Structure formats: structure tokens, C-alpha cells
Amino acid sequence: MDGKSLNITEDLISKLKEIIPGAFTEDKINVEQLKQVLGESISTDTDRYQLTWAGKNEAYKVLQIPTTETLAPNFNGSVNWDDAENIFIEGENLKVLKALQKSYYGKVKFISIDPPYNTGSDSFIYPDNFSETKEEYLKKLGEKDEEGYMTREGLFRPNRKENGQFHSNWLSMMLPRLFLARNLLKEDGAILIHIDEHEQANLSLLLNEIFGEDNLIGNIIWDKGNPKGDAMGIAYQHESILVYAKNKEKFLSETDLSRKKKNAERMLKKASELYKLLNTIDIPAEVKKVHKEFNLPDEILTKAKRKFTLEEINSQFNTWIKKQGLSGGEAAYNKIDENGNVYRLVSMAWPNKKKAPDDYFVPLIHPVTNKACPLPQRGWRFPTSTMKELLDKGEIVFGADHTVQPQRKYLLKENMSENLPSILFYGGSDDSLLRNLDLEFENPKPVEFTKSLIQAFTKPYSSDIVLDFFAGSGTTAHAVIECNKSDNGNRRFICVQLPEKIDEDSDMFKKGFVSIAELTTERIKRVFTNSNASQAQKLNFNNKKPIGFRSFVLTASNFKIWRGDMISSEEELLNQISMFNDSIKSNSASINILWELVLKSGLPLTEKIEKVELDKSEIIYLTEGHRMAFCLDKFTPEIQAKIIELAPSVFICLDSLFNKDDRNKTNTQLKLQDNGIEFKTL
Ligand SMILES: C[S@@+](CC[C@H](N)C(=O)[O-])C[C@H]1O[C@@H](n2cnc3c(N)ncnc32)[C@H](O)[C@@H]1O
Known about the structure:
By secondary structure, this protein is of the alpha/beta class.
């Protein structure tokens, strides 16, 4: 354990080495050999299509700088810590994404982000100066306060339109974050990014560079149904949602990208109500109305009596369908068959421009007239064997006679889901939902809409992790909870939000909230608390999903960091050496050190840690499956014996607990080794 986040360059080199070992000489990439191996696939032409901007190189350097920062638990900001499967992190997302690399590399199924759109007035915060050298930047990102380095607050400024590098700054901000996000995705994972007209074109190109054009899943238009009132030109009423997979083929093989037809249940219910009337005797509603209004004789009613036919049922169903505001895909299911099934008709014509093979031209015979029905010009969509199967299953519908071309029948009950279309309509706002939680946010994304996207991109029962590192008000967290509530799923979220100060004139500030992250935490807390309470009330033991979340805060490492860059005299060198007599910073709490070790060992933040207490200060922290044990307060012969009994694979102990007694340390090492336990000191 080196106390740092994953080294991105080393990670890439090791991957390249795995695929092309021949391109390395003495552990360094041999460019000439690489060119030889890849032959014509290497482009050396300087005059080529590419995305470039001022500061791109520096943005890659920023990506490569590891962080030593860590995450400290915030028990007060959590709900049901022990059983929680969800995570909220307060902190700057670049550092958080770096800190998460070891624990969550390749573990996240779905990333959904809504970054600042770079409108010139939004809360886009970016590192001030990308033109400095890597060393200068490293220095700024280093430890703050104690060593007197610049604080994070000093490092960030809002991006304004007057700024000469307006788009460049935004791209430089997005590049390292997207790169790190991609690392966290599972091979079958995908990322979804909300964006508006300000940066959509640039973002598409950047995503092509980081994820590869071939991994584009699609560009969804979200029609909000409400054009912007302050538009100078075209009034935008939509936003874009760009979706990329880590590996499109794997993603599509694992994810069906479908969503439930919103109104399907309601349509089936209406059809069943109408179908129950089949063959009953009825008086049309209009006749009854006129009879009553004009006080007409009763024989009018008797004369108007009629048997309820399937045609009548279909006509009433059709009228109802037209009034419901259904999506095109839903409204097409506008027919009811003789068994009461709702269905739609679809052409069976060969879809391509070229003619179908001969086997696709066998005519269908009309069941009543016994004559051949017309064939589509370029043939049927299916070969004769499939057409016969469909016919046997009753899935082909004929017209009144042989002059009508037969069509395929799709039953609604067998097609309750539909593929996510490229245009989504959602115009609602969550103002009242948040008011019910007694909270307010500026422009939160709607939970219902976010929920439908999460459901399309994740599976309910695969413990899929959903990550949002521009969490804002915490809509993603809220939507994950709602998804699990509605399908009893076990999706989990990780949300990251900067402690950005909220407007001092806002009601929320007056109510005592200082930062957006505080508001986000409070929202998630209230959603969990309310959901847990209502689940408990229902006493439904099969469905009690919402449980809780663990809250963490990005902080400086608890370990002293060797500052070679500060040593310019013998005195400073001695200073650094004396600091390292104890590697732990003086004000570090054991619990924070523990979670730093958990994170930097690559364990998840949801790890369940058992506290084995021999007495008050003799504590062993044991991770799941006895993979690791930590000792941070005191080391005694009793602890040593207990460790041997618990038999973890690795035992990590603070070096200072041996009080410079090297003999004791060596003996411990040998004893643990004899018992198959790897021993490490820090
Ligand atoms: C557009 S808002 C997200 C809104 C969110 N989708 C919702 O429904 O409320 C973007 C959020 O990202 C946060 N943010 C901006 N830069 C950040 C950074 N470097 N690290 C973490 N959060 C950041 C901002 O504070 C802001 O709350």
C-alpha cells in the first residue's frame, strides 16, 4: 500500500503490456517496435481529424497525478450505517474519483451525470490554471494548511463567458473526470450524460475520444415541452442525453435497454372492462341521455336496445385510446380480439430495398375465400417455415377477403416493455415532491424521469452500482431508492457532491444549511427515513428494500506525506525525518485511519467491519471473510494471540505501536508468518 490513488499511467502501461508485450524494451514502450507491430494502423499524419483545445495536454497531466487524499466516515450524515449499501461522498469529484479507483475499478454498472452545462453563469468550477507545469500543479494539490499550501478554495474559480478559454476550460475539467469514470465502469457498463446546447457538440467529440466512437449507444433528446423563455434565437425546449458504453457489444448483450410501457396496465384494464360487455344487451348512452333530457316515451329505449358486439367494443376502445395522451408505441395497440386480447397489426413486408429470397414469396391463402392474398412487392419478412408457424399460432390476421394483405398480430400483454426511444417526453417538475421533504433546490432533475432511465440501464437484482459524481440535490440517489421500492431491486448508489456554498439569501441558507452537499445529505436522509418508516408500517417482509447510506467526506490523508519537494536544506531534511518517526498525523482518529486503510487496500466503502474488543483499547478491526485485520490503538501479546485465532489473510498494524521495539516486531512477523498470515506495518 503506497497511500496514493491508482497510478493511471502505470495502469495503462500494464494493460498495453498485457496486449502487446513485444512493444516493450526494458520496461519502457519502444515506439518504433509499437509502430512495427501495428503496421498501417498507426497514423503519423499531423494533418488529421482530431479534437484539440488550449490546455488539453495539461488536462491529461492532471489526470495522471495521483491523490493521497482519503475519505473519512461521517456517521451523523448517514442512515443505518451497519446495513447500508449506498454511499454519499462530500468532496471535489476529481479527487474523489481518484480515491475510488482502487476500490471500484471495473465495478460500476451505470454512471449518470448532470455536469454544469457551462452556461457562463452556472456553478462550473475549474482548476484555475492549466498551463502550469505538472510539478507546480502537484504542489498546489498537495497537503494544505499545515504545510502552508494553497487551499482548495483558492484553487477554483467560476468560469465566465468573457474568459478567453471558455470552452477549453470546460473540456479540461471534463476530460480527466470522464477518463476516471470510464475506469470505474464494468465491461458491460454505460455512462449517461445530460447536456444542453452550450457544450453538446464538444462533449460528443470528447466522449468519442475517451470511450471510442464505436461505443456510442445513442443520443437521446429529452423534450421538456417548455421552450426557454429567455431565448435570443431558437427557443430550446430539449436537452441532450449522450450515452456511451465501456464496451458496446458487452453492454448490449447484458442490457435490454427497455422500459415498461407506462400506460399498458391501464389499457389492459379498460379492454377487460369493455370485453366483459360482449353479447350483453345494452342501450347506447346517447339514447339514454336524450330520453332523459326530453322525457321521451320508454319504447324509444326498448327500440334502441342492441347486443354489444366486438365491433362496438373496438369502436369504444378506439375512442378511449385517442383521449388518453398515449405514446405512439402504446396507441398502436388499439384493437381487441375475440379472446379479449389487446393487439396491434404490423406489416410483414420485407424491410430491405433489395428483394427477399424466393422462399419469402409463398402467398397466404385467405381462410374464407380460399384465394391467394396479395404479396408484398419485395416479399415477406420471414421464410415460409416461419410464416407457417405464425399462422398456426394465430398470429397472422387476414382482412375481410383475399384482396387485403394479411398482417402480423402483436399482443400487448406479451409486449409490456418497449425499447428506449431516442425522444423522451417529460415536462414535470419536482418542486412539490421536494416541498414535501421540506427542502428546496434550484433546477433538480425529476426523480420519475431519472428513475425510468436507471431502470432501462440497470437490472433490478444484480446489485448494480449507479454512480453520480455531480450529484447536486441527490436526484440520482432518490431515484435509485424509488427504483428499488417499485421492483424490490437491490441497486446501489454512490453519489458525490462538492460542498459548494449555497446562496446566503436563499431560504435553505436561512434554515441553517451552508453547502449543497449538506442539503443533498439531508434529502437522502429524509427519503430513507420516510421510506423505511412506511415499509415498516406495511409490515411487508418481502419488500423492505430502502435501508440506508453511509456518508463520507473527502479529507487529507491521516498519514504524513514525504515532501521531497520541500527539502532544500539540511535542516528541512532533518525536519522531514523527525516527522516520520511516527507516520500518523497527530490529530488523526483511529476510525478515520481505519477507513483510509480500507479504501487504500481496495476494499469497498460498504465493507462490513467487525470490531473485536479485548478490552477498551485493545481493538482489532476485522473485514468481511477475515480478509484483513487492522490494529491501530495498541498491540499486546493478547492481540497477537487473537489475531492468530482469527486468522486473517493480512494483518496491518501501525508501526508506532511497537514503540521502536524491533525485536518484538520481528518476532510477531515470524509468528504470524508461521500461521500463514501476511504482516504489514505502516
Ligand atoms: C447541474 S448540477 C446537478 C443537478 C442534479 N442532477 C440534480 O438533480 O439536482 C451540478 C452539480 O455539480 C456540482 N459540482 C460542480 N463541480 C463539481 C466538482 N468538481 N465536484 C463535485 N461536484 C461538483 C455542483 O455543485 C452542482 O450541484
